[in-house]
Recover the amino acids of this structure.
């Protein structure tokens, strides 16, 4: 089954919605054509076993098969760093070794634990200054003010920025403080940290456009309309069931597994432990589905909750 994408309004493109729709129609294996670029989409975890092989001889290790495509090099998503580098036996191998040695050191684990504790305590002080935390007196209010609602992604992006800043440079970042000042009306200008965070988000979202559409299409096709050849569900390509092995792989697999996974788990466990030991976390609306956005990466766009001091 193939789905030829001749043109789409690129602005509201959501890859998760697109692929879920195609999966429901065509099953767990489908073929996509983005202009002249062909892609095979695997929608079931069992097909990912070979892709996650821990061998440099695996034919699936390259993220972008069209390595010589000038569009990828123009955007800087191939032949550099670790995440999308296809120079497996050259710069990728060296960069991977540097990242692994730097991020998997026992000393960094101890330092990261202490830095996370300090950063969470600092974030708590900002919540108190911004009037976000609800105490016993506030619980008697008939209506809770909007300022006491926390959007988790906004705070976590700045928490991550400050943590990376500390690990990479060794000095304290200022993203959380700047964001708190903005909430309190003390900052009326665009801070450097906020500008970097926005630029990082824009860069990640733009990868899909450079990956899937040629330079000619990006520049001269403002709207592209899809032509679906068939709308028939192929039952033999679909599988049911919730208990599926490897259906959620947080840090990837194989040689492309994230080298910072240990550090990320230290931060996550420490953050959750320190928040739940002092506060009751309450979602603003239990019935609202989680708002996510999928392009090259899947991210949470909105998760509203309140913090109440425990008695």
């Amino acid at each position: 089954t193939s789905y030829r994408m001749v043109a789409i309004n690129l602005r509201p493109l959501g890859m998760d919605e697109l692929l879920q729709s195609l999966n429901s129609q065509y099953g767990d294996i489908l073929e996509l054509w983005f202009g002249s670029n062909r892609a095979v989409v695997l929608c079931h975890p069992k097909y990912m076993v070979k892709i996650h092989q821990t061998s440099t001889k695996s034919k699936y290790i390259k993220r972008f098969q069209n390595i010589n495509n000038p569009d990828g090099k123009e955007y800087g998503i191939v032949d550099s760093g670790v995440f999308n580098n296809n120079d497996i036996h050259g710069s990728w191998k060296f960069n991977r070794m540097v990242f692994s040695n730097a991020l998997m050191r026992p000393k960094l684990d101890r330092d990261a634990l202490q830095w996370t504790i300090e950063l969470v305590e600092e974030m708590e002080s900002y919540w108190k200054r911004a009037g976000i935390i609800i105490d016993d007196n506030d619980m008697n209010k008939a209506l809770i003010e909007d300022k006491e609602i926390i959007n988790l992604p906004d705070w976590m992006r700045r928490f991550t920025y400050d943590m990376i800043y500390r690990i990479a440079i060794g000095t304290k970042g200022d993203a959380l403080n700047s964001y708190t000042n903005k909430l309190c009306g003390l900052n009326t200008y665009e801070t450097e940290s906020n500008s970097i965070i926005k630029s990082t988000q824009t860069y990640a979202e733009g990868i899909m456009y450079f990956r899937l559409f040629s330079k000619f299409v990006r520049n001269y096709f403002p709207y592209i309309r899809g032509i679906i050849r068939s709308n028939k569900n192929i039952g033999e390509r679909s599988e049911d069931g919730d208990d599926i092995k490897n259906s959620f792989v947080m840090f990837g697999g194989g040689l492309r597994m994230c080298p910072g996974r240990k550090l990320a788990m230290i931060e996550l466990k420490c953050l959750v432990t320190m928040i739940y030991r002092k506060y009751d976390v309450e979602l603003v609306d239990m019935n609202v589905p989680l708002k996510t956005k999928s392009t090259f990466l899947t991210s949470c766009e909105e998760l509203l909750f309140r913090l109440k001091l425990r008695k």
